[in-house]
Amino acid sequence: MRVLYVEDATFLAEAVKHNLEKQGITVDLANNGEDGLENAMSDIYDCVVLDIMLPKMDGLTVCKKIRSVLN
Hints:
Layout: E1 2-6, H1 10-22, E2 26-30, H2 33-40, E3 47-50, H3 59-70
Parallel strand pairs: 1-2, 1-3
Helix pairs in contact: 2-3
């Protein structure tokens, strides 16, 4: 399984990544909404986890843009 985790709090992102990787899950990180959206559009992720309050583009907007492409 491959997860994209979009989180601007570096310490939290690294902690979550570490724990998921211990469970055998591959985790890629993005630290702002624009990068998160660009990565999510690559279509290689099984799951995208978004923070709501992100720099450059908030998580809700990222989610809406991803969903508009999928529909």
